[in-house]
Amino acid sequence: MKRIAVLGLGLLFLLAPTARGQQVTLSLRQPPPNQLTLTDLWQLTVIYISAAGAPSQPITARLVGTVRIMDRLQGGGIVVTATTSTFTLAPGTRIFTPQSINTAAPIQVQWTNQKIRDAVSSTGQFPTGQYSACVEIFLVSGNGQRSLAIDCINATVEVTTPPMLVSPAAATTVELKYPIFTWTPPVPVSPRTRIQYTLKMVEIHARQTAGAAMQTNPAWLEQPTVGGTTIQYPPSARDLKVGQRYAWMVFAATEGFPLGKSEVWEFTYQPAGAIVTVAPATVKPKGNLDVLEELLRSCREASGSVKPMLTK
Fold first, then answer.
1. Residue range 258-283: average pLDDT?
2. What is the pLDDT of residue 187?
3. Which span out of 51-55, 227-231, 292-296 was modeled with the highest average pLDDT?
4. Poorest-pLDDT segment among 5-14, 96-105, 263-272
5. CA dist., res. 82 & res. 51, Å (int)
6. Are 24 and 47 in contact (CB under 8 A)?
C-alpha cells in the first residue's frame, strides 16, 4: 500500500512541471486620463515562458475582456464582455494592439447595458463614471479552457467640454499692437490637473474662411502656456500686419493627452489712426488704333458730320 502511494506521489511530481509548464503574465496598459474606450482592452503585453524542464511549445489561447461600472446608481456590474477567437501564443513577449488582435483573433462583443452601449456608439468612449477594466488570458485545449493570467485597471471618466474662446471676440477689430487672448478652461477638470494650453494663430488669405485657414496655412504663432487661460501676444513675435485678418484657436492637454480644442475665431488687426494703403488702379495705356480713332472722331465732329454727345 505504501509502495502504491509512493509511486503515485512520484508520478504526480513528474507530471507537475507539465501541468504547470506554462508561465504567463499579462499587463494591461493604463488608458489616457479621463478616457476609456473598447480598444483600451486590447492595449496589453503578454509574456509566456516555460518552466524549468518543460518544453517551449506554442499554446492555444484566448483573451476575454470585461468592463465593469462601479457606480450602482448607473446599474453597476459588467456592462460589456469582449472575447477573441483562439490564437497561437508562442514563447516570448508579445505586444498586442487592437489592430493585431482583430487580424489574428476576431473579437465578439456582448453588451449588457444598453444605455452605455448607446453612449459608446455615439461618442466612441464610455460616458462619465467609475470603471474597472479587466483582461484575462485562457489556455484552450481539448479538455476546455483554464485561466493563465489576469490584469485589471481602474479608470475614471469625466466627459469634458473643450476650452471656449472669450477675447478677442469673433469677427472683431483689434487695435492693440500686443493683444491679449483669453479663454475658459475645459470642464470638468480636477483643480490638481496640470493643463497645458497652446495658442495657435494663422493668417487668413483672400476669400478663405477662418476654419479653412487654420487647416491649411502655416502657423503665424504657436504659443504654449501652463495653467493660465490668458496669453498676451509676445513682443518677440512678428509684428501683426495692418489690415490683415487672423484666425486663432486654443488646444488643451494634460501630460501629453488632449483635453479638447476650441472653435476657430478670427479678428482683423487695425490700430487706431492707421491708414490702410490701397494700391492705385492700373490704367490701360491706349494703343495707336485707339488714338487714331479718337482723332478721326474729333475731325468729324468739327466738320459737323457727327454731332457731339451732349451731357445732361
1. 77
2. 85
3. 227-231
4. 5-14
5. 30
6. yes
In the prediction, which pLDDT does 57 show? Answer: 85
Cell triple for 37:
474606450
Task: Single out the residue of 232, 225, 214 nearest to residue 252, CA to CA.
Answer: 225
Query: Which residues, 6+ apart, have CB-to-CB distance to 52 below 8 Å?
Result: 17
CB-count burial class (<10 Å; 0-12, 13-18, 19+) for 71: exposed
What domains appear along the chain, each with residue ranges and CATH number?
Answer: 20-157 (2.60.40), 164-269 (2.60.40.10)
The reported pTM is 0.56
DSSP lists the bridge partners of residue 27 as 45
One-letter amino acid for residue 275 of the chain? I
d(CA 63, CA 48): 14
The CA distances from residue 238 to 99, 172, 235, in Å, are 45, 21, 8
Question: Of 78, 60, 53, whose CA–CA distance to 68 is shortest?
Answer: 78
Residue 72 CA, chain-centre distance (Å), reads 30
